Fold this sequence. Notes:
This protein is α/β, with parallel strands linked by helices. Helix content is 41%, strand content 18%. The strands form three sheets. Strands 1-2-4-3-5-13-6 form a seven-stranded mixed sheet. A four-stranded antiparallel sheet has the order 9-10-8-11.
Amino acid sequence: MDEKKFVSERVDYIASDMIFLRDRLFNLAELPYREFRSSDLLIKVLRQYGFQVTEKAAGIPTCFYGRFSSGEGGMTVGLLGEFDALDGLSQKAGCTVFSPVRPNAPGHGCGHCCLGIGSLAAAIALKEYLVESGRPGTVIYYGCPAEEGAGSKQFMAREGLFDCCDFVYTWHPDSRNMVDVSHCNAIMGANFYFRGRSAHAGATPYLGRSALDAAELMSVGCNYLREHMIPEARVHYAYIDSGGTAPNVVQDRAVVRYEVRAPYVEQVKELYGRVQNVARGAAMMTETSVTAELAMAFTEYIPNLTLSPLVSAAMAEIGAPEWDEEDYAMAAAYLESFPEDSKEAIRERFRKDYGEDWEKVWARPLDASVKAFDAADITLQAGSTDVGDVGCAVPCVNLLVATACLGNVGHTWQMTGQAGSRLGAKGTLTAAKMLALAAIRTMDAPETVAKAREEVLERNGGKYCCPLPDEVRPPIDTY
């Protein structure tokens, strides 16, 4: 059997149905832990294609996985799908000027409508490959909610849901075609609840104890803390409850959310402890009380060095999305839609990356090639993803596939528009083919898989350890 031909033809055969599903997810645009209709849609399709589905996995209502086995034995392949949206990034699909479907509504500004469907199409193609070839094996599609929120994969990994897999592959919409060479930061987040005592702010303020004062002093303390932490670390925050809107009432409550990032999870734990100390100091200064509710934590993501070259070769076999002139024109229009200061920063990056050809790339800003994996390219990125916890439990690789213009800025209305456009559609189907072929090629390499497993065990010390204590449950209603 010509595996490349088989995978390509099967994905092409279901392409119209998959893009219809991409459009459905795009229009649903549900926020983290609230992806009820999106998950129901994906579950229904998995069952239609013969997968046995387990719902409400890891204690999360919108988390699920679909499993299909062929024969006895063989390798077990995991494919990750995401489907949550971001608040405030609504945008009409394919529209190159700002035009929200509904003002301030959610939108797929990270392209998860494409991500979930690309992995689904790959799972279907791989399932049919197992049936047609008579090869034993299992494919599992993991429906992973809330990547943009407090995550789900760390809770899934803690429950052992990935332990049955020999390897796990996923992808993410991007502007390039390559194995992801990001070392993503670990992250930890918590809500800090300050409690004080109300009083009349004009008549008897001395009888009050301001929880809002405590929250603000915590901000001051963390600002001073930033000088004394490693430069790669990050501390950021948002006020969740400022204690009311009446200035003549001393606020007896305030809630502030803090997230800390660092290259490795042990560094994050240490920094989070220091932030907790700042909160305690703020409470002492204001004679209030504070409790911290740890809610989320992701392990750092580092690509599996053993499997990455194999995945990269499969990506090159499939090749980049086949762009046409309409695609190039749309990409150029999206690139020009960014604010001028953003475009100047993008131009600088183009000059550095493309040299004298940068203006030609600017005019036709779509990646039409696949960059080969090079471990020397792995660099620390400030962002975080719960895919890191999968990679700390089993061999895992993330593919980047172009669904947007070169120079694209994520978490923007432009990203939303492209995710729902013809660019997003072509990238989604290409990603499906790459994932399926990479899985087949990996199943043909048991010695490589065994070495990849050794790499994981060396990294995690013999067993995955969730960065969250066992008593911390998914913060479905609080984060």
